[in-house]
Amino acid sequence: MKCAIELNSVHEVEKFTAIVSKVDDDVWLVGYDENGHSWAMSAKSQLGSLLLSAKAQKKRKCTAHNVDWNTLYCECDKDIYCLISDFVKE
């Protein structure tokens, strides 16, 4: 399962991380940076998710990588859509 998602606030990051942390399989955040390089990190890491949140990105002047928000996805071998539907882009 792969879904385009948005994490726009610290509250959303905390809620998303709490939800995916209970999944008994690997859950990944994947995407591309501003230079088109792909990256992936565990979605179960609140720190990682926080670094990717739009609000946190806007507050920092420079980052290790600037996320291309059109390419932020959640991936999992299990179907977790119903669990993360609040964060799925329409």
The CATH level-2 architecture is identified as 2-Layer Sandwich
Calculate the mean pLDDT score and round it. 81
Order of helices and strands: EHEEHHEH
How would you describe the oligomerization state of the chains in this entry?
single chain
Q: Kindly name the structural category.
A: alpha+beta
The gross shape turns out to be: globular
Q: Pick out the low-confidence regions.
A: none
The largest beta-sheet arranges its strands as 1-4-2-3
- Number of domain modules: 1
In which range does the helix fraction lie?
A: 25-40%
CATH topology: Histidine-containing Protein, Chain: A
The portion of residues forming beta strands comes to: 15-25%
Taking the alpha carbons of the first and last residues, their distance comes to 16 Å
Calculate Rg over CA atoms.
12 Å
Specify the biggest β-sheet.
4 strands, antiparallel
What's the helix count?
Answer: 4
Number of strands: 4
CATH class: Alpha Beta
Sum this structure up briefly:
The protein has helices spanning 10-21, 46-52, 54-59, 81-84, and strands at 2-4, 27-32, 38-42, 73-76. The mean pLDDT is 81. It is of the alpha+beta class and 90 residues long.
What labels describe this entry?
4 helices, 90 residues, 4 strands, alpha+beta, 32% helix, Histidine-containing Protein, Chain: A, 4-stranded antiparallel sheet
